[in-house]
Design a protein that fits this description.
This protein is mainly α. The protein is built from three helices and six strands. The longest helix is centred in the first third of the chain and has 68 residues. It is rod-shaped.
């Protein structure tokens, strides 16, 4: 019962740590998304303001052109028409302002969230047991004056990357372990 309680407590502690990491990462990513939203809205607001200014200038030019078209004095018409025509040409050349800088379809392409790898890792969480000890192949083991070679095999399903080999030197008085 004590052993079970200790393992259950460890499980709760580890899961709480994982959930805290996820909560913190969620907050960081949410802040990045909000910051990007604010930046894009600011940029769009600036573009809207530029478009409004362009629209106001165009409206003024159209009103001036309509007023000039009503002019009955031919000389005066030619004098003012050239000025208005130059201003219309300049406004037409600067009409690139009306093209939005932001593509709304991939406005958040920086935030492609793919948690498939993490989900697989979390789904694979399980209680691990220690691997079985290797079997020593005594027929292949050798010993010389200052060298010992130990051969073993492991028939465990676990992927064991290394084993620790301990040996004892009998000195006669006390055993020396290295």
């Amino acid at each position: 019962q004590v052993n079970t309680a200790m393992h259950e407590a460890k499980l709760m502690e580890e899961c709480d740590e994982l959930m805290e990491i996820i909560r913190q990462r969620k907050q960081v990513i949410a802040v990045k998304i909000k910051e990007t939203k604010v930046m894009k809205l600011r940029k769009l607001a600036q573009q809207v303001a530029n478009c409004r200014q362009c629209l106001e200038r165009s409206t003024v030019l159209i009103n001036q052109a309509e007023h000039i078209l009503k002019e009955n004095d031919h000389a005066r018409f030619l004098q003012t028409a050239r000025n208005v025509a130059e201003r219309v040409a300049m406004a037409t050349a600067s009409s690139q302002v009306l093209i939005p800088d932001i593509n709304f379809n991939d406005a958040f392409e920086n935030f492609a969230l793919d948690f498939s790898r993490e989900k697989k890792l979390l789904e694979g969480l399980d209680y691990l047991t220690a691997p079985n000890p290797p079997s020593i192949r005594e027929e292949l083991c050798t010993a010389s004056h200052d060298t010992i070679t130990v051969h073993w095999i492991s028939e465990d399903e676990f992927s064991v990357s290394s084993y620790e080999l301990q040996y004892t030197i009998f000195t006669g008085q006390a055993n020396f372990i290295s």
